[in-house]
Design a protein that fits this description.
By secondary structure, the protein is of the alpha/beta class. The protein is built from 17 helices and 19 strands. α11 (about 235-250) links the parallel β8 (about 225-230) and β9 (about 255-260).
Length: about 450
Amino acid sequence: MARDENLALLTDLYELTMAQSYFQSREVAPASFSLFIRNFPPDRGYFVAAGLQDVLKFLEQFRFDAAAIDYLRSQRMFTDEFLDFLKALRFTGDVWALPEGSLFFTEEPVLEITAPIIEAQIVETFIINQINLQSLIATKAARCTHAAGGRPIVDFSLRRTHGIDAGMKVARSSYIAGFTGTSNVRAGKRYGIPIVGTMAHSFVSSFENEMDAFRAFVASFPNNSVLLIDTYDTLEAAHKAVEVAREMAARGERLQGVRIDSGDLAKLAVEVRQILDAAGLTQVKIIGSGGLDEHDLAQFSAAAVPYDSYGVGTKMGVSADAPWFDMAYKLVEYADRSVLKLSTGKASWPGKKQIFRYYDGAGQLERDLIALRDETVPQGEPLLKHVMASGTTLGSHPGLEDIRAGFLRDFKRLPDEVKASKEPATLPVAFSPALTALREAIERNFSGR
């Protein structure tokens, strides 16, 4: 499949119409934009940052190639002078951002950009597109990780994600947030994520009888066999799995597990575990799948349902119960003048910022403070990192395993009541006196006008 590698046109038209107007008005001063989420969706108490590496790569490679310029000229909307300007346009700005895998909360900037206003404006659409999706999925996956109570989870979502790029980013984001693997082979190759898979119902039904299907599969994969046992009668198939396991043992092999994908998953897991244990197959694992998300996993964990691991697909891959974040990219400073938006329900906070994090005596996350970037704040841990200067990434990108380890370390420090799948507690997030005073001064200035 052909792929358009030039992503400069992956933007909303109004970004370009504004850019031409800036250009013709000689508005070229530095501007700072802040990316944040206004509100929590239902049952969310935290977010997980993801997508930064894609943003930095895009900014480093940003340019309008000849084909892009020709297309824009064909629309007969833009002047030749502006199109000539776009030919030479590169991103030359700075980026401050939360490292991928970081926990954050409403109103906190996940990323801030400072660049000449045309550069900073045009890249808005791509930045929101990447950070919104990947943070959305990482957050959903983190909720599943917590609800599973330590049981491994694999991403099974590829066939239901919203396109190829989404499928790749879902695999990566869910791995950051604690999943142990993916069924997505391409994502395994690109990102180095462990790949996991068993068999489909079509494999079982293609044989005249279920036992032949099971024997054929374990013959092909004597060291990595998981049998799907719910095609016909789950309990009867469990007894067949016992027979296959005994045949394998006689050959010096071992059945790894069985998977249940339909029916009353909690009840069937208990009954299948009894069948396996009665046969002395306590080492054979039971994998659960089929429309699961964090709410199901939390119920299973609370009831000690004997699943050893899970495959989680559709509801995680599209974040079914919260398929979008109210993410905004707002101008906070232009030409050394702090600015804000005062629209009802969508007011923003002015100025370039920093987030400071505080922990209690037990090392648990206690509260955050949003302050102006140049403020001196005692004791708090600054979270936003300077990751790009003058259009060049600072340092090397952390590896995916390091990002994942950082998330898991920080997630342990988040109080369980904030992680709850239903009606979570919220972590206190305050604004510094200096930031508050700046906002109030700007609001007074507007009201005076």
